[in-house]
Amino acid sequence: MWTVEQAMQQLVEELELTADEDKNVKRQHGVVREVLRRRLFSVEEFLSGSYSRGTALRPLHDVDVFVVARPPRGSRTPDDLLREVRQVFKAEWSDRALPVLQRHSLRIDFSSGISVDIVPAFAHEQGGYLIPQRDTGAWIRTDPKAHQEVCAQADRLAQGRLNPLIKLVKQWNRARDNSPLRSFHLEAMCYSAFQSPPEGSYLERLEVLFQHLSERVMQTCRDPAKLGVAVDERMALGHREAARNLFQNAIREVLLAFQERTSNPDLAHQRLSKLFGPVYRKRAP
Length: 285
What we know:
Elements: H1 4-14, H2 19-40, E1 44-48, H3 49-53, E2 62-68, H4 78-92, E3 100-101, E4 106-109, E5 115-123, E6 129-133, E7 138-142, H5 144-157, H6 162-174, H7 183-190, H8 202-216, H9 237-263, H10 265-276
Parallel strand pairs: 2-5
Antiparallel strand pairs: 1-2, 3-4, 4-5, 5-6, 6-7
């Protein structure tokens, strides 16, 4: 049986894409980006989302491709832009199902189980980009490049120790059926957790991060790019309180597991398995 720290290290490694998985993801988003360049005549296209920030979890379900279209001639609604991009793929892949229209993007599903989400946008004259919001007919200002830099800067302050912790709390959130937390909201709150490298074991670092999150979730979380609407704009007070309770419970379980790691490692492993789900293991298969 592994020690608790060995099991935590193994969990961190299990959440990383394998070399083969990463190669497959690159191939699939490369195919989509090539179509966009050739048929949409886009200004630019680049990766966005958690995969681009190095905070995506394994198994990876989707990767985001951000495509900047040429400025429109005349008025164009969010739905117009999304459907225009969809027509590009209808023309390219006439024998395949059309991309699925979503709130801000279009989803293309591949047989491997990976989806590519295409987020079309226009460049904003004052910086950042405008992306469509179908349900309201509005344009939302954002900047995924700024999100990447904020994340990278936070990880640099922590000397590379933040991103593994972000993945751990995302896995904890994935294992909660009753969590009101969206993945990006959870990640954005983590950026302000450490102004210096966190010390101690994974459990000690997690306890500090969960404590930060339990306080931070009660406050509005701005877009890390300082553009557009708050990340948690739809989160009601009741949802914040529910999330704080989940964080506080996680703090208790992490502290208990830390205390039991040598005196009762089996019980510590049981606690951590409940926190992180089946991906957490106490021994090699």
